[in-house]
Amino acid sequence: MTSDARAFYEGTFLPRYTEMLRQVLQTPLTVLIWGPGKGGGDLYSKRLQIRGQLRESGITAIFSEEVEVANPFSSYSAKALELCQALAADFIVVLQSSIGSTAEVHDFSQFVADVGRKMLIFIDSRAKDGYSYTGALQELTMLYNNVETYEYPRDIHECHLLAKVEGKIKVLQFAKWRQRYS
Fold first, then answer.
1. pTM of structure
2. Contact of 6 with 160, CB cutoff 8 Å
3. What number is the average pLDDT over the span 99-116?
4. Domains of the chain (ranges plus CATH)?
5. Which helix (H) or strand (E) is 95 found in, with range?
6. Are 91 and 31 in contact (CB under 8 A)?
7. Angle at 131 between CA 118 and CA 87, to 5 degrees
8. I want to staple 40 with a disulfide (CB 3.0 to 4.6 A). Which of 11, 12, 44, 52 is the partner?
9. 135 neighbors 142 (Cβ within 8 angstroms)
10. DSSP codes of every residue in 46-86
11. pLDDT band for position 98 (cuts 50, 70, 90)
12. At 87, which helix (H) or strand (E)?
């Protein structure tokens, strides 16, 4: 490069480029994390870890049970409240290992374009022959490739789920940031 080209590269291009990457990292996302509750052992601990790590990186990561419900909405069913949460969120991580998280996936996967596409669902590989995996999850897999199986307990203890969530978050932040230029 000529000295003028080098000066332009260093003084104009690199600062713009770096600022755009910073903006991508600071693009806000709201992420719901569904899964087992306090009695869920190491899967609940994994849910806490995912929420904690996302929060440390500046993401609004919440459990549905943490969302405050003001009157007059407190009389609505849990399904109604969680559907509204799911529609309002950017992304939903599901550790499908409890009765509640399985029901949430089945309730809301019927909203395929609005909610189903936002989900990243983790299901124990031992459940691949079950109704959930061969029903609603098969449809989501075919449409969005957003269902991941895990090997319990290895993948829980080795943080494979967290790495997949973080990778997806980076893609979503970039996509949301990119909408400014569409």
1. 0.90
2. no
3. 82
4. 29-181 (3.40.50.10140)
5. strand 91-96
6. yes
7. 20
8. 44
9. no
10. HHHHHHHHHHHTT-EEE-GGGS---TTGGGS-HHHHHHHHH
11. low
12. helix 78-88
